[in-house]
Specification:
oxygen transport, about 0% strand, mainly alpha, Hemoglobin_trunc, Globin-like
């Protein structure tokens, strides 16, 4: 019975020691570092404003339900950045099917997104982290 007590104590102490580290990782998501829902909404709102005013690509959003697009972008960024959201939209291939977007169109959208993040003062390292989540979507968007 005595050998069990040191093992049990070691397990309990190990669990206590690892709890703060796990909690800090959980609390240090990109979602939280972006400012949570309010931070993501600010980025999306500034991005949509810029895209709407960008004559190079705003034609692609001409027949778009902007409030729905806003909701979906917020969900997508929230979910991808470790937030509590679930993305309820279509796949990127489906959403961009028939649009025949070019690499240039994609790059212009990214330019507008970066300018929007600068406008709402998202630090450069967080911008890179967010762009890193969505960069791999290029093949699912371009040429569809």
């Amino acid at each position: 019975m005595k050998p069990v007590l040191p093992c049990l104590l070691a397990i309990l102490l190990g669990a206590c020691a690892s709890t703060p580290q796990q909690a800090s990782v959980k609390n240090d998501t990109l979602y939280q570092r972006l400012g949570g829902a309010a931070g993501i909404e600010a980025v999306v709102d500034a991005s949509l404003k810029r895209v709407h005013g960008d004559l190079r690509i705003n034609i692609f959003f001409e027949n778009t339900d902007v409030p729905d697009l806003r909701r979906l972008l917020i969900e997508q960024i929230c979910a991808a950045s470790g937030g509590p959201c679930v993305y309820s939209g279509r796949s990127m291939e489906e959403a961009h099917s028939g649009m025949n977007l070019s690499d240039r169109d994609f790059d212009i959208f990214v330019e507008d997104l970066i300018a929007a993040m600068n406008e709402v003062k998202v630090p450069a390292p967080l911008q890179q982290e967010l762009l890193g989540l969505f960069g791999p979507m290029r093949p699912q968007i371009v040429g569809q």
